[in-house]
Specification:
six-stranded mixed sheet; 4 helices; 174 residues; alpha+beta; 36% helix; disordered N terminus
Length: 174
Amino acid sequence: MRTVTWVWFATIAALLIGACQSDAGVSSQPSPSPAPVVPPTAQPATDEEAIQQLVRLEGAGIVSQDLEGLMGLWAENAVITDAKHTPNDVGDDARWKGRDAIRDRYVVLVFPGAPSTAGTTEMALTITGDTATADATTAIGDEVAPLGDLWTFERRDGRWWITGLTYNLEPDAP
C-alpha cells in the first residue's frame, strides 16, 4: 500500500511540474504584435476594387463588432469627422484622430447601436495616383445618409488604407 501511495504521489508531482514548466514556457514568450488585417477575400484586381473592398469590410466590421479587424483598415494617422449636418461650418465638427481615437469611437458610439446592416449603397470614386476620394451614400441600420459621406484613401506599403471619413455632410432637412 505504501508503494502505491508513493507512486501515486510521484505521478501527481510529475504532472504538476510538467504543467508548470509548460505554462512558464508559454507565458515567458512575448505576445506577437498583431499584424494588419488582410482582407479575407481574393486579391482585388484593380485599385477601385481594393478601395470598394475596404469600405465593404468596414461595414461588415461594424455589424460583427470586429474591432481589431476594423483597426486593420485604417491608416495610423486617419481621421473621422462628424460634420453634424452643417458641412459649411467646421467649427461644430467632432473629430477622432488616429487609431486609438477611432477605436474609442467604435466602442462608445457605433457598437452600442448594434446595427444589423452597414455599408454604402452608392459610391462615386476618384483615384489619383496613390490617393483616392469617394462620395458615398451610407446605410447603417435604418439610417441612410444620401451622399452624406466623404471617404479618403491612400496607397501605402503596397496596399490601400482608409485615411479619412467625414460623415453627416448632408444638411438637415428644414
